[in-house]
Structures are given as C-alpha cells and as structure tokens.
Design goal:
532 residues; mainly alpha; 4 domains; 3-stranded antiparallel sheet; two-stranded antiparallel ribbon; 22 helices; 9 strands; 50% helix; globular
C-alpha cells in the first residue's frame, strides 16, 4: 500500500484492477487487493490485460460475466461449468462504482437471507441425545480421508440422527453464547455437510473440513465447537510453532539443527530444571542465535566442536543491543547443552554480556496526547485510552480484564490482580462502554470487558492487535501513554522507586529506571528555570 504524508486525503479515483470509480485508500480497491493476494498474475483471455486471474479471467471480466448471467437468468452464479460460456461471451465491460459488486454470489447465497428468515420463525430443535447403535463394524484399515469438497450441499442427509443431535447441541451453544440468526444458519448448514454419511467411530479432522467450509463462506470455528462438544473432532492442524521452527532450522547443519531444535523445545515446554518460556521469547532467542549457527554450520557438524575463541571472534563483530541479545541466546543454548551432556565445556562461560545503558525517559508533549485523544472515536477506544493513560495498564492486561473485576458500586477496578480506584473520568467512560456493549451485543456470553464482533460470539479475549489498532501510527501510542503515566507519577510524587513499585506493580529495576529518569528531568528543569 502507498504511504501518504500526514494530512493527505486521497482523491476519488478509478481502481486500475476493476476500473471501478470511488473512494479507497490504496492503489487498488479492497476487493481487487484481496483478489490479487489469492491469484497469480498473467494475461487475461478476455480483456488481454495483465491482471490476477481466476480460471484465466481477471476480476473485471468476472464482474461483467456475472452481470450478464444475472440479466439473462435472474440469479447470479459462480459455478465454473455454468460461468464458462458467460466468460467467453464477454465483449464489453460495464463500469461500476466501488462496492456495488460482491466477491461471491451464487444461487445458494441469494437464497441465504430467505432461509435465515425462515429459520428464525422455526421452533427450537427437539431435544436429542447421542445416537445409540447396537453394534458397529470395526475398521480394518485406518480411515481414508474424506473429500467434503465433492459433496453437494443440496444432497446433505438431513435425516441423519447424528445431524439431529448436532443441531440440538448447536442450539444450546447458540443460546449460551448469543449466536445470531446468521451464525446459527451457517453452523447448521456446515454440520449438515460434514455429518452426511457419518458412521459411529469415524473421526472428523480439521484438515478435511477447513477448505470446503471456507469455500462456502461457512463459519469453521463455530462448526468445530459443536463437533468438539460431540467428541468426534480431531484437531490435526500443524501448530504455528512447528512450521516456524522447521523454517528456522533450514540450512543449518543436521547435527547442530537437531541440538538447536531440542533447545528450542525445552525453552517452550520447560524441563526438570527450567521453567517454560513464552513462544515470543523462544522465537526471539532462536532468531538471535540462528545467524551464528548458520556460520558455524559451514565448519562444524555439532555444537561440541565450537570453542571459546569462536564465540569471542563472533562477539567482536557485534555491538550494542545486538551483541547483548546474541550473547544471551548463545549462553542459554550452551548452558542447556552442558546440562544435557551434549558438550564437554561451555564456550560462553565467563564471557560478560554487559549492562544496558538506558536513556532518560521523556514525557509526551500535550499536542501528542491531544492527537491520540482525537483519534479515540468510539467508547471502546476511549476506555482503552483511559486505562493506559490513567491506570498505566499494558495492552495484554487491558484485553484480559473481565466483568467480574469491575466493581461499579465501590468504584474499583482490578487490573492484573491489583485493585485500583475508579476516578470520575474512567468511571464515565466505563459506563458509556458498558451501555454500548449491552445495546450492541445483548446476548453475548463473553465475560471479558472488551469484546468485538469476533469475540462476542465466543468466550475468548480480544487480541492485542485489536486493542492497540486504533492508535497505531500515533506518536502517543498505548505503550507510550503507559510510560508517560508512570513517569508523571515519579515526577509529581518524587523519584521514589518503592512508591512506583507499590502503585504500579513494577519490578524493582524498572521502578529504579523511572525514578532515575524523573530525577534527571527534575534536575534539568531546575537548571533551566531562571527563578530557581
């Protein structure tokens, strides 16, 4: 996406992909941008332009073919066999405005809203229990993966007792978690697809149903929730950590890679003499150690061949924070290898890492804070801003606050286990958000204070990215507002590290850093004040 200077307003223009006229932020309209991410670029058979193609035709030709098909038949469709003659018959293009053509439109999609309205007037499904069978044939071979993508949704087995039980469980979950009519309809349709032909003892795997359900724009997560409740689902999706670790281990010598892999897993899972670390910490350590492991892979086959001179020679090429980070990661790696008996001597022992020389923390300027306040345009953002700027709460702490930790009557709020009094501003913003939350999601069962469209139908917390998103790009971000609040406390109440640790729950070293910064700022202000 193009980056424009602050204050720049992009004029209304035409999208070079679909030629649609309208207001959009980037070079392409949003639909063409997403279309280009999913398809390869080549010469379109219809218009001869070099564009991202789906079945050898660009999105503009697809829009025109759908328009011609809808004009002739009255119903839009996206089936490849049906659309082929319409795509071949395109000889001109009717230009349109941005947002008037949808990415997906089919006969099933066109009837979606009618079916949702009909479903809303139906009585709840009859109470069902797990189907019982007198006997079942044990499988002779391991279950062959099913291809759910070949199943026609119209041919689903609606009389299946397993589907009846699944609908009953889905109705209970919908009532408990506040699923809307659209979600209920999509979940029932997805269950009808995956449970057609189901036999007791079969296992439905994530890898088998994810792509077919996504192709039909159905809610995979909610369908999986019902299948897990039934006890017939197996999550065989490869975790992100496994994919990331396999990529990081590429090009490293096999012997060193095997030892580094064991070290990374011990960091993540813990061991007899070590506590488990967060995955972000594991990735940070491994990314810092990977460059030197790659360099040593050209000369050595195992870590036990690395000497102290090798570590010192590498340390001489590093400076500042990079030197400290890489030495800390290497010390962790070789200390684990020494405990595990993989090496005879630790080549990083008695190599000093050094201490970080922190600069003096600087307070935010009033105009920076004003711009962030102006960017808070809805109750959720304003409450998040107050929690960071008044109560010095971190992003993850804000996202994990629950309704049970809000005590309106006693004007108290618990953040990360610490009870804080509610000032008038935070109390007003909190009441505004609770009123908006009640009107926007009246049936949600999510107990977290902050919720959005994705988390309102479940029980999980909002992501850190969503919490900090509205202020991304501002000079006064949530993290800087939190730092500014703690620095202000140190300057107003005096540079007392013990007071800061007690009020904000800071580590002693962090509290001392704030106290030292406040002391330096106060001394600087006293030196520049002509009246002193």
């Amino acid at each position: 996406m193009a980056r424009f200077p602050k204050g720049y307003v992009k004029p209304t223009s035409s999208c070079p992909g679909c030629l649609a006229w309208g207001d959009f932020r980037g070079r392409l309209c949003h639909t063409c941008y997403m279309f280009g991410r999913d398809h390869e670029t080549a010469v379109c058979i219809g218009c001869r332009r070099v564009q991202p193609l789906k079945w050898e035709y660009c999105r503009l030709c697809w829009c025109q073919a759908r328009l011609n098909a809808k004009t002739a038949t009255g119903m839009p469709t996206v089936s490849g066999e049906v659309m082929t003659p319409w795509l071949q018959a395109v000889r001109h293009h009717q230009l349109f405005l941005v947002g008037l053509h949808y990415r997906r439109g089919s006969a099933l999609t066109a009837l979606h809203h009618i079916k949702v309205r009909e479903a809303s007037s139906r009585p709840p499904p009859v109470s069902r229990s797990r189907p019982s069978t007198a006997w079942r044939q044990l499988p002779l071979f391991e279950q062959i993966p099913r291809d759910y993508g070949r199943l026609d949704p119209a041919a689903a087995d609606l009389a299946s007792p397993w589907l009846a039980w699944a609908k009953h469980l889905a109705h209970q979950l919908a009532e408990a978690r506040g699923w809307g009519r659209g979600i209920r309809f999509a979940v029932n349709r997805g269950l009808a697809i995956v449970l057609t032909g189901y036999i007791e003892g079969d296992v439905i795997r994530h890898s088998e149903i994810f792509t077919p359900l996504r192709a039909l724009d159905l809610r995979v997560g909610h369908v999986v929730t019902v299948l897990e409740e039934m006890g017939i689902f197996l999550d065989d999706e490869e975790p992100f950590f496994e994919r990331w670790l396999a990529e990081r281990l590429e090009d490293i010598a096999p012997g060193i890679a095997a030892e580094a892999e064991r070290w990374a897993r011990v960091l993540r899972d813990g061991g007899p003499r070590s506590l488990p670390r967060q995955q972000a910490t594991v990735r940070l350590y491994f990314n810092r150690a990977r460059p030197v492991l790659l360099a040593w892979s050209y000369r050595y086959d195992h870590l036990r061949e690395v000497t102290r001179d090798d570590v010192l020679a590498h340390a001489k090429t590093l400076h500042g924070h990079r030197r400290m980070d890489e030495l800390v990661a290497l010390r962790s790696l070789f200390a684990w290898a020494k405990r595990s008996g993989l090496i005879f001597r630790n080549p990083t022992s008695r190599i000093k890492v050094g201490q970080i020389e922190h600069s003096v923390l600087q307070p935010l300027a009033p105009d920076q804070i004003d711009r962030s306040v102006a960017a808070a345009t809805n109750p959720a953002i304003r409450l998040v801003l107050a929690l960071a700027a008044v109560h010095a709460a971190r992003v993850a702490q804000i996202a994990t606050v629950t309704l049970d930790e809000v005590d309106i009557g006693n004007r108290r709020l618990t953040i990360a286990g610490r009870v804080r009094p509610l000032d008038d501003l935070t109390l007003k913003l909190l009441l505004d958000w609770l009123e908006y939350r009640r009107e926007r999601w009246p049936n949600t069962a999510n107990l977290h204070l902050l919720i959005n469209n994705q988390t309102a139908t479940g029980t999980g917390r909002a992501s850190n990215r969503w919490v900090r998103g509205p202020l991304r790009g501002q000079e006064a971000t949530l993290e800087r507002l939190r730092v500014d609040r703690q620095l202000e406390e140190a300057m107003v109440r005096g540079p007392d590290a013990l007071h800061l640790a007690e009020v904000f729950g800071l580590h002693e070293k962090t509290a001392m850093r704030y106290a030292e910064s406040a002391r330096a700022l106060l001394e600087q202000a006293a030196e520049t004040d002509p009246t002193s």
